[in-house]
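# nightly structure sweep
# worker-07 picked up a monomer target from the shared queue
# config: single-sequence mode, recycle default, output format = structure tokens
# input follows
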Amino acid sequence: MDPVRNPYAPGAGQRPPELAGRDRELEQFDVVLERIARARPERSLVLTGLRGVGKTVLLNALRSQAIRRLWGTGKIEARPDQSIRRPLSSALHMAVRELTPRHRDPEQIDHFLAVLKAFAMRSAGENAKLRDRWHPGIDVPAASGRADTGDIEVDLVELLVDAAGVARDVGVGIAIFIDEMQDVPPADVSALCAACHELSQQGLPLVVVGAGLPHLPAVLSASKSYSERLFRYVRIDRLERDAADHALVAPAADEGVEYEQSALDALYEATEGYPYFVQAYGKMTWDHAPAVPITADDVRVAGPDAQAELAVGFFGSRYERATPAEREYLQAIATLSESTDGTVSTADIAALLSRKPSSLSPARDSLIKKGLVYSAERGSIAFTVPHFGFYLRRYATT
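# output follows
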């Protein structure tokens, strides 16, 4: 098969040629956008799921929907131990710039930009070096007395309310997209919840759409008790069989290539419907197939190379970030999870390693911060990456 014509795209956050199995989420978000535009009450949205299920791809697709409706949009990727004040400022700056040509009152735009500048400049102390200060290219001077208290919760509420006012004047809305939302610092999470609460109460046209790991709802709930009612949570999981087949068949059909049913059976068995794996195995199988149609033998031949590539690029890069103590902890999870649904008891890990549970807490907490494991319930732990246990048992050593 011609590798130049290979349609599959197993890149991080890269949109596949066929966004299969997400029609329901796309349709629901269209309803959210329309309701907010009509000043109907609506909640902000949070996508949760393991790595490799396509959360970032879906987040980008939702942003495209908002852009098609002429909304102002901005996107950030949260990072551990880094305030969202500056990246959120940049995202809102971009969103309002998209609305500015349609706004009738330049003075109001200048006022908002002044407030935005004041909000952003609070991210650096008075003695901060020039390289640490925000340089947004905003010509107006920073405002005084609005979004500049230094209290992120007070400032963010005021800023988002003002941003929503700009969008309302244009007759549209603003959507802010936050990837890796579980990494937002606790104080900023509290501020986001408070801001979304205020926006909802006032019926203002600004929505926050977050994406994160399965424990993100617990992170939000720990910040504000009302967050369970504040957001609409959508779990993004692996693809059903029909959707996984469609993700493979539709792009191939555009290139005049077909699959035998036995090949699709073998591919689903290997990938279990996880979108990243579907793309990775699809790409490798295409490159190995000598002719049309693609057969189960082609899948079997390509399998070892697909696994090896995932071992390096998808699994290995994450494993390399772990310290020796953390790798020992990961190996213990892999051993115990082979006979479970993937979730294991922290007490069982301690017993396997012949250690006191308290002595393993630093490794566990560090792995959670690195996004390699998560704890949905007290006393349990699981990998954030599907098939990670299989990789550790087969390829990795401490």
